[in-house]
Every structure is written in C-alpha cells, then in structure tokens.
Design goal:
The protein is mainly beta and 141 residues long. The chain has one helix and six strands; from the N terminus they run αββββββ. The strands form two sheets. The chain has a three-stranded antiparallel beta sheet with strand order 1-2-3, with no helix packed on it. A three-stranded antiparallel beta sheet has the order 4-5-6, with no helix packed on it.
C-alpha cells in the first residue's frame, strides 16, 4: 500500500467505548455537544449501563426544568437514577471544570435549596456548591 493512501473508511470508525476512553485520557477534552451522540452510562459503578432518554421533564417540574430532555438509568439493582440533561443549559465558560475536565453545568437543587455544579454529561459525579443566587441568604459560618 502506498504511504500516501488513506486507510479505508472502516478503519476510521471508533466504538462508543473507544470514544469515552479517548476523552478520559485527553488532557484537554473537547466540550460535549448536545444532543449527546451516545447515551451516557449510569454513574453507579455496579451498573454502568447506557441511560434511557426521557424526551421532556414534566410540565409541573418545580425547579425550572420543565420540558428539558434528560437521561436516567432504569437498569441495575438500584432505584431509577438521574444521569444528566441532554441540553447545554447552565453550561457557561466561567463555570469550574468537572473531574472529567469539561466545563461544569450549574443547575437547581431538586429540593429548591439553591444551585450546584455538576458534570455536564453525568460521568464523573462531580458536585460542587455554587454561589448563592441573588436574594438568597448567605451562610456566614
């Protein structure tokens, strides 16, 4: 084979696992694009099965997530588990990096008690406290 020839196209195809491993090993991973190209795996280490896409959160969602698509895990020996949203809401360049190296997502706590930072694809389980929202009392302890 001539060294100037490109390899056949089938050699350029990578598997989902290879893609995930490449982004884990990369020092500066590319930011995720939404909708996600693959269903993210369950964050439970004993499960790790691909999540199930729910096309839209309930219209009565109390924390402001109505209509947002999201992934959950319905497999394994654990209760239904939220993985991540399938959109780019709350991902801002000023947010801190998650443990995967991505720009984290800021989102509302389910108990309506402020906000937190999390991994935008639900992979590393990164959780961090976000600054108080305007008008929210600050804890001075």
């Amino acid at each position: 084979m001539n060294s100037f020839c490109r390899p056949p196209a089938q050699h350029l195809i990578i598997t989902r696992t290879q893609f995930i491993n490449m982004t884990i090993k990369s020092e500066a991973p590319l930011e995720p694009t939404f909708p996600l190209p693959f269903a993210p795996p369950c964050p439970d280490p004993s499960c790790r099965r691909p999540g199930t896409l729910i096309p839209a959160a309930r219209r009565t969602n109390e924390v402001g997530n109505a209509g947002r698509p999201y992934y959950v895990c319905v497999h394994g020996n654990h209760p239904r588990r939220f993985i991540t949203f399938d959109d780019d809401l709350g991902i801002y360049t000023i947010n801190p990096r998650c443990d995967c190296g991505f720009t984290s997502r800021i989102t509302n706590r389910s108990n309506q008690d402020g906000q937190f930072y999390c991994c935008p694809i639900g992979r590393c389980g990164h959780l961090g406290s976000a600054p108080p929202m305007p008008g929210e009392p600050m804890d001075l302890d």
